[in-house]
Amino acid sequence: MQTRHHQLHFWSFLRNKEMNEIYLSYGVTNFALGLVSIFVPIYLYKLGFSLPWILGYYFLLPLSSVLLTNRVCARVVAKSGVKWSMLIAVLFKMLFFTGLYLLPTHRWLFFVLPLFNMLKTQISSLGYHLNFIEHSDAAHRGRQVSILQSTALAASLLAPLIGGVVIGLVGFKLLFVGAIFLMMVAAIPILVLPDHKNLKPVEFDIKNMWRDMLKRENLPLFLSYGGYAIEEWIGFVVWSLFLFFILHNTESVGAASSIVAAVTFLVFYLVGRLSDKVSKKKLIKLGTFLYFFGWVGRLFADSFSSVIFIDSYKNITGNFLQVPWSAFSYDLAARSNYFRFIVQRELMFDLARVIVAPVIILVFVLNYNPFLIAFIIAALASLGYMTINRLPETLVGEFEKK
Hints:
- This protein is an all-alpha fold.
- The chain contains 16 helices and no strands.
- Helix 2 packs antiparallel against helix 8, helix 7 packs antiparallel against helix 8 and helix 7 packs antiparallel against helix 11.
- The radius of gyration is 20 Å and the shape is globular.
- The N terminus and C terminus are likely disordered.
């Protein structure tokens, strides 16, 4: 009888049509990004750009976001609605992949692509997060976060391996063409979503936005979001290049990433169920402690087998942490003026990266154990996750008044 009850609950859970469409589009999108994203720093390196220049390229993305997010991306989402903003983001993703394709013969695109990257990332992120808040169920938000993330992970299980093999056989350009085609496919589920334009009004006053974000009572939130943003930035850019240097080819980089993703996939849904039943704050505290040692482990990665072992541990503990952390963030957003909350959250992400990225670039310019120092910075930044637990209860009330 208990089994029957769980089966009925599972099928009713999947009958949330809007969430299923989000899962599908998110999965296809992440498969396309999985084919390409991890190899973009390697692509830039193969085109002859030095490591400080590559890091500078990725610094331009959060810098342009801090300068333009509130003036461009948030206005686009507010005026066009969630559905159409997600479609606009698909267009920018296609332009970004096209720019990568043309970069070898049009080197000036090196300075333009970060802008396209920022627009597609910010508009897409705002659209997906707002869509998730509108259609998710508060009682099962942890499980829905885990399904959304595991959908993306499942779709990208083989993507890095396929991407690495394609690059090894025929080069980068065919990969970019395939990613453009997949983005067209990802747009189809979005087209059938209802067009919600019920976003709460937002006052786009940059001074007020900065003032509210930097209030003392918001410091735990900034440290938590900033910690995520910094370690994620280092993990994406610096770790990708480090893998290439110790594994020597894109096929091995892709294979390692796919194997780690497969191992990680096994624990996703269980963590989501746990985060709905156990205090999210307790899971975040424990997850932060475990995840910190994942970054410490990366200091000792020096071979294919050690990468698999260390990164599997890091990703598993990272998901143990990030599912309740994301669910808790969505809970905060859903109880407030969620549009303003999400916009400010994205701004916190990029402000933290703008502060730390120049330090990382300087480390690589000086070239004294740069990877070791970068990983230590990421490990320390990851401790910031648990500061969200110290958020004053009055904060949500303050957001609700705005």
